């Protein structure tokens, strides 16, 4: 398992380096998903299969896919080309192949984890809500503050857009009023 641990750690470091060096945001997020899968393999080799499953389901599965789809849907006017060259998929394909081979090897071989004992759901919950309960509560308050701040920023942006649209409509109405009043005397002279 020591070899599997180091291979997964190298894949995690390489894919994380690719995250911070990619210019295309979608490619960076795909590398981040690979990095999170590699961290899950690291947790598995350390004897924490429950934490590894949570890493895959929560982070790589739910949150990162939400980020990826949000970026793909909202980035409609990107400067990136419509067609991605085939060589762009070589790096992620190699890293995923290494992780897949490592997981298959780790699941089929009867080896002991590095840590000695497995960490189950009960041990995780006792640790989170025992000595670390203050950290868990502080993290939840921090996430709540971030959520309120994001809502406030989004509402302010929406209000600013509404105010700008209202100003533009009033300018257009004023310009149309001036244009029609300028034509009225000329039209009256032509009728006389």
């Amino acid at each position: 398992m020591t070899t599997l641990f180091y291979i997964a750690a190298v894949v995690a470091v390489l894919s994380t380096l690719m995250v911070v060096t990619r210019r295309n945001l979608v490619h960076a997020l795909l590398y981040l998903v690979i990095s999170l899968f590699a961290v899950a393999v690291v947790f598995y080799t350390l004897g924490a299969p429950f934490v590894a499953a949570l890493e895959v389901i929560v982070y790589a599965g739910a949150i990162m896919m939400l980020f990826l789809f949000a970026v793909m849907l909202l980035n409609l006017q990107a400067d990136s080309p419509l067609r991605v060259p085939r060589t762009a998929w070589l790096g992620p394909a190699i890293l995923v192949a290494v992780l897949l081979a490592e997981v298959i090897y780790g699941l089929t071989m009867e080896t002991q984890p590095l840590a000695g004992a497995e960490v189950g759901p009960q041990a995780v919950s006792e640790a989170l809500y025992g000595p670390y309960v203050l950290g868990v509560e502080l993290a939840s308050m921090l996430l709540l503050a971030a959520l309120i701040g994001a809502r406030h920023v989004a509402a302010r942006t929406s209000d600013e857009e509404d105010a700008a649209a209202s100003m533009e409509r009033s300018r257009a109405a004023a310009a149309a009023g001036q244009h029609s009043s300028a034509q009225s005397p000329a039209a009256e002279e032509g009728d006389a």
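The chain has two domains: 1-77+86-119, 129-179. The two ends are 101 Å apart (CA to CA).
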